[in-house]
Input
Amino acid sequence: MRDEAQRSQKIEFEARLTDASARETGQPIPRNDKALLKVTQVAAMLQVSEAWVRDHSTRKRPRLKYVKVGKLLRYRLVDIEEFIATWCQ
Output
């Protein structure tokens, strides 16, 4: 029963994130494990500024994990969800 409730909450949470990201950035959040998110998409997910996302990518704690693609910062959805689970209570 508890697993079912958690699954239901996760589905509802993902739907809200997709809607918020699409409204704010004009781009839906990709739902596959290999997709990399842009700073704007992560900012929309966390409802913070792009500067906040960049700042928390370079600090020690709390730190957003990122992938560097040339000069660009990209984020894995799994890492962002882990950040939310760990730091947003």
Q: What stands out?
A: The helical segments are 2-25, 39-46, 50-58, 77-87. Residues 2-87 form one domain. DSSP finds four helices and three strands in the chain. The radius of gyration is 13 Å.
